[in-house]
Amino acid sequence: MKTRIAFIAAALAMSLSASAATPTEQLVRQADAWDKAIIRKDSAAIAANMAEDFRQISARGDLAGKAAFLEVIMSPRLVINPYTVEDMDVRFYGDVALVSGSTRMTGSWDGKPFGSHYRYVDVYVRKDGQWRVANVQITEIKE
User: Fold this and answer.
1) Alpha-carbon distance 7 to 2, whole Å?
2) Domains and their CATH numbers in the chain
3) Model pTM?
4) What are the pLDDT digits (tens) for 109-131?
5) DSSP string spanning 119-141?
């Protein structure tokens, strides 16, 4: 009985601490989970974080919608090594949040290694209580 009570108390404490997270902490965790889903090529998790009208603006100015973005990310030709985000900043404007930072990314395309260093801004929009990334823009940082 004591074990069961201790388990219930621990579960309650964990749920309270999770719900006590600030909106910034929640969005940081969501953005981090999206990055990890991209690395492991979890199509369902990647898509679940994206707005239906999602678009990406590449460092060259190219546009890609949700389907095109997913197609490239899920391509077996692309391998992305684990990476970290530096200098993450989250700013809220009502139901819009800007998540920005910089990333050094390595991986390969068709077996050829690549490396990139870029700044990004992800625009999240809250709809029906859920945050979804609606726009991603990246800018290359020259070394």
Assistant:
1) 9
2) 22-140 (3.10.450.50)
3) 0.83
4) 999 999 999 999 999 999 999 99
5) EEEEEEEEETTEEEEEEEEEEEP
